[in-house]
Amino acid sequence: MSRFINPFTDVGFKRIFGQEINKDLLIDFLNALLDGERQVKDIHFLDKELLPIYEKDRGLIYDVYCTDEKGEQFIVEMQNKEHANFRERTLFYLSQAISRQGEQGAEWKFNLKAVYGVFFLNFNLTSLPPKLRTDIVLADRDTHELFTDKMRYIFIELPLFTKEEEECETDFERWIYVLKNMETLQRLPFKARKAVFEKLEQIVDIAAMSKEDRMKYDESIKVYRDQLVMMEFERQQGEASGFTKGKAEGLAEGKAEERLKNARGMKAAGISPDLIAQITGLDLETIKGL
User: Fold this and answer.
1) Backbone angles phi, psi at 224, to 5 degrees
2) Which region, left, alpha or beta, applies to residue 105 given φ > 0 means left and ψ of -120 to 50 means alpha?
3) What are 31-38's contacts with CB under 8 Å, separation 24+?
4) Are 204 and 15 in contact (CB under 8 A)?
5) For the chain, which residues make up each domain, given as ranges?
6) Distance between CA atoms of 128 and 42, rounded to whole angstroms?
7) Residues of 7-45 as b/e, b for ≥16 C-beta within 10 angstroms?
């Protein structure tokens, strides 16, 4: 039996990163993520209902929405499955957070605050080079010079993180190692290095949960596992469909090649193109080109 919660579940993710009382965990992660760029000193959780909710995404996507002491906003999500228009959805979320900053009146001069989208992905992004962390910014296509720093996407593809405990060199890597392996660990590492991991171990210990929280967690585990089964079924169906389609296409190609072969033989024997067309079903232009 697992000692620690699964962070890929709704309850697990929000227990770690979505509680005001434990906001120092999210602050520490954000600072590890943005190390060398800036430091977040404090955050305030915002109403997630300001973000659009799509019922079909529930059980797949869990989000946290907060702002820091500078007024900059962070949308932090755990996503377990890529879906249609996934990237457009992230663009829409961040754009809404930007547009809500608009104020009425002539005095407002578009002094926008930056919005960060941080997306933990329990899958690999398609059509992009495989790497653990992908940072998307608005920049000039040719010179790569930054156009504005007010909108930024950070995608973290967890399946691509393969380091062992002793190989982790930065706090960002230590966080990713713990999150990815949490459910299989019997102790949380790095506690001697940073006190935040000591606190994290207490929060994610299943035995320390109240009866009510444990019931909620057990239900979220059920939802998570049901989603995994559905995803595996969809994958198998896709493979089976691809095999059937490929087999059918192969047979069709074989028949087409056989018709061309027969047509070539008949043409070489001096049979008229019109008759060859009637026998093989090929059009006259194809027969003339043989």
Assistant:
1) -60, -45
2) left
3) 31/171, 32/170, 32/171, 32/172, 32/174, 32/175, 33/118, 33/154, 33/172, 35/170, 35/171, 35/172
4) yes
5) 10-209
6) 34
7) bbbbbbbbbbbbeeebbebbbbbbbbbbeeeeebeebee
Residue 193 phi/psi, 5° resolution? -85, -40
By residue count, the chain amounts to: 290
* β 115-121/133-139 pair status: unpaired
Q: Categorise residue 108: left if φ over 0, alpha if ψ from -120 to 50, beta otherwise.
A: beta
Name residue 173's amino acid. E
Q: What is the pLDDT of residues 211-247, one digit of tens each?
A: 999 999 998 888 777 776 766 766 677 667 666 565 6
* Cβ–Cβ under 8 Å, residues 288 and 263: no
Q: Distance between alpha carbon 44 and the CA centroid of its chain, in Å?
A: 25
The whole-chain average pLDDT of the chain stands at 85
Residue for token pair 């992230």:
90
pTM above 0.85, yes or no: no
Strand order across the beta sheet in which 146-157 lies: 43-45, 61-68, 73-79, 115-121, 146-157, 133-139
3-class state of residue 19 by DSSP: coil
